[in-house]
Amino acid sequence: MKAFLIITLLVSVAISQNPVLSFDCASIPEVCTNMCWGVHCTSGTFSGTLTADPGASSSVKAARRRAAGCLPSPNQCSNTAAGPNQGQGLNCDEFPFASTREADQGGQNIRCVPTTQNSQQGGTINGFYRSTGIAAGTAFDLAFLTPTAARYCVNQAPAGGGAVCGNDGKIFNKNVLAPDAAAWTPRSKRVEAITPMYLYETERGEQVSSASLFEVGRELWKFVPRNDTLGKISFAARSADMGGDDDLDLELVVDRVLKRLE
């Protein structure tokens, strides 16, 4: 009879020091659903940490969008009844973003989303790049406010039943329906997570999920339509007028982690 020595390895998770870009999933639930699928339901192909490439040329970003299936236009999201949008004119949203180096890996997931949501996401990303002055090659983390407003941002099966990472029929790899993930990652508390999920409460009283571990006081940068902040409690905030392709008037609000919930 052979004796076996079982060794338990305790893996310490380092607190991230990257700048944090947060998206309000109550405002852009379809876009958040696509991002969170990429973070949690691709079996570790992508994660909640991306590498900024804000100076990428138009041709480079176009090549990344073409590889994802969002170009040429018209694409499957601008189709009529033949597309997954059931005849609605929608925008093609890809993850990882075309302004990040992870988009060069290929295999992006795409989803047909409302134009207003896609524009708000684009304005948020551009505003984050401008406000931080982030350099190409710098890593940044993603966080999702009101994560239960979208699918795949928390480890929660859909109300009608099914797997946490079961495709809802609207997420594609190019024009092919993306396969269901083998499991939500993290799979078990006893197994080191490929892409963990942490839930926090912020100073503004909001819940936020992220695949990154943050300390109390970590700044979370989000952008909201300027009039959305009227009448709210004043926290440390700075404003950034948004121009460029999205032509949105967004305000940068800096929130902070108050405590970790799980």
Shape label? globular
Major sheet characteristics: 7 strands, mixed
Structural class: alpha+beta
Low-confidence stretches: 1-11, 187-191, 229-245
Q: How much helix is in the residues? A: 10-25%
* Beta-strand segment tally: 11
Please indicate the percent range of residues in DSSP E strands (runs of 2 or more). 15-25%
Outline the structure in words.
The protein is of the alpha+beta class and 262 residues long. The protein has one domain. It is built from 3 helices and 11 strands; from the N terminus they run βαβαββαβββββββ.
What does the secondary structure layout of this molecule look like, with pairings?
Layout: E1 20-24, H1 29-40, E2 49-51, H2 58-68, E3 91-95, E4 109-113, H3 115-132, E5 139-145, E6 171-173, E7 176-177, E8 198-202, E9 207-210, E10 219-225, E11 250-260
Parallel strand pairs: 1-5
Antiparallel strand pairs: 2-5, 3-4, 4-6, 5-9, 6-7, 8-9, 8-11, 10-11
Relevant terms:
262 residues, 11 strands, single chain, alpha+beta, 16% helix
Short description:
The longest helix is centred in the middle third of the chain and has 18 residues, at 115-132. The chain has one domain (20-260). 16% of the residues lie in helices and 22% in strands.
